[in-house]
Amino acid sequence: MAEASVLAKGFAATSIDEILFEAAITKSGFFYHFRDRNDLALGLIERFRSQNLSIFEDIFDRAAELNEDPLHAFLVGLKLLAETLIDVQATRPGCLVASFVYQDQQYDARVRAVIVDLTLVWRAQFVARLETIAAVYPPRVDIDLRDLADMLTVIIDGGIILSKTLREPQIMARQLLAYRAFVRTVFLGA
Predict the structure, then answer these.
(1) For residues 97 and 45, is the Cβ–Cβ distance under 8 A?
(2) Which of 123, 140, 101 lies closest to 11, judged by CA?
(3) What does pTM read for this prediction?
(4) Residue 31: how many other CB atoms lie within 10 Å
(5) Which of 82, 107, 120, 130 could form a disulfide with 173 if both were Cys (CB 3.0 to 4.6 A apart)?
């Protein structure tokens, strides 16, 4: 309940009273589990982390099962990711990580540390896959693989923003497919 409110309105605009009402709990019940709003934010982001940390790894592992070539497996993974994120967008109004990052003055360093850790894990997952590809297909352009990995995160978060702003859920999928074409070009040439 709290997560849906935070995604819809942002953390700063979500009151404890609203959360109490939506969750049908008392203030004492809330404060039994959470010391304050910051603890709620930490709980939400830790839950998000545990549920979503492996989403990219699972998708790209499945793609690797479907294709042994590292580049083609990554390209298949990007296609699967585009399909998955279209479905996710239909049920979620935004990205919890982005919501918290935009309002980081609302909570303490513990929440930020979880977000940083999550982001670095995703970066490491992407870089490892790109390094495997580069070992077989040396890049045809001068590009830092970490920047190429970070670009995927930027496209996902930017896709969420554009899709939500323009009310066109397919924007993210199109952007992921454009990234896919770019990755193909980086490793195979035009």
Answers:
(1) yes
(2) 101
(3) 0.76
(4) 12
(5) 82
Q: Give the model confidence (pLDDT) of 102-156 as tens digits.
A: 555 666 788 888 888 888 998 999 999 999 999 999 999 999 999 999 999 999 8
Asked if 97 and 119 touch (Cβ cutoff 8 Å), the reply is yes
Predicted confidence (pLDDT) per residue in 6-44, tens digit: 556 666 666 777 776 776 777 777 777 777 777 877 787
CA gyration radius for the chain?
19
| Contacts made by residues 150-154, CB under 8 angstroms, sequence distance 24+ | 150/123, 150/126, 151/179, 151/182, 152/126, 152/179, 153/119, 153/122, 153/123, 153/126
Give me the amino acid identity at 125.
Q
Distances (CA, A) of 101 to 33, 76, 81, 105, 130: 23, 30, 23, 9, 26
Q: Which long-range contacts (CB under 8 A, 24 or more apart) does 11-14 make?
A: 11/37, 11/41, 11/99, 11/100, 11/103, 11/106, 11/107, 12/103, 12/106
Domains of the chain: 53-188 (1.10.357.10)
